[in-house]
Fold:
Amino acid sequence: MRITDEKLLTVMIHRELMAELNEWKAKGELDIYTDFRSDCIEKFDKNRRPLIGNINLLEDRLDRKGGGVIIFAKKHLKREIKSLAKVQPQMTDTSPRRIQAHVYVNAAGPWAGDVARMAGIGSGSGLMSVPIPIVPRKRYVYVVHVPDGPGLDMPFLIDPSGVWCRREGLGNLYICGKSPTKDEDEMIDHDTLDVDYDYFDEKIWPILAARMPCFEKLRVKNAWAGWYDFNLFDQNPIIGRHFHHQNFFMSAGFSGHGLQHALTVGRGIMQEIYDGGYIHINYRKYGFERLYENRPLLEDNII
Structure:
């Protein structure tokens, strides 16, 4: 992640953003300043297309909005950013190459802890001594059929044991699962996505049947397993800028509730990168600091 002597590539699509680029240009901060209109986008040099990613997507957006200007510019950074470990992936159809960038967002889900270690986080001293405690944790979801099950007005059932269940569709189908206890979690093989049906028979079915006697007649129709990006520290996400690597951002560790937060957290990370701080929603309590200060952000009844 060494970026000394590099420059930042910015892509802007709307006309109203030209004023900001003009200001950069007047200050001598731009190396390249070129306008590309939608009617000539296909003439763009194919060798430079990787700079803008999916060029057809950009062109489609312009067409739907009645035309516009795509502006490419290189802007000098105001400061030198500390270098991190270099990433050199093996491509399938070409030789290995090094990937460099100015900003890194670690949204690697269950493997976010591994990515952080690649950047030296958790292997140094001082601020760098604190690891990212995010690991893959397997969870099961079972699909069951209950002939005389509850109707459409069935609420989302969450039992104090961690067992949960809700209706799925109109065919008397229900999906259910369980947040395992610490002892149960240690017995699960988190390296595979194999489903343990005995876990359902022993840990889930008896509780469902006690809650709703009609579930004694259930039949398991299907099941699957998936990985949570599980934060061992407090089961809550780690969001924001690392306090040593100022160009390294975290957005992981949601421990099963990432879908609920994805849109707003993405917006918050974008604001932190481009505006230097959170504007609409403050995520500071989810930052790295609580790890360094050993201050867990605990929440009851997470499933």
Summary: The chain has seven helices and eleven strands. The mean pLDDT is 78.
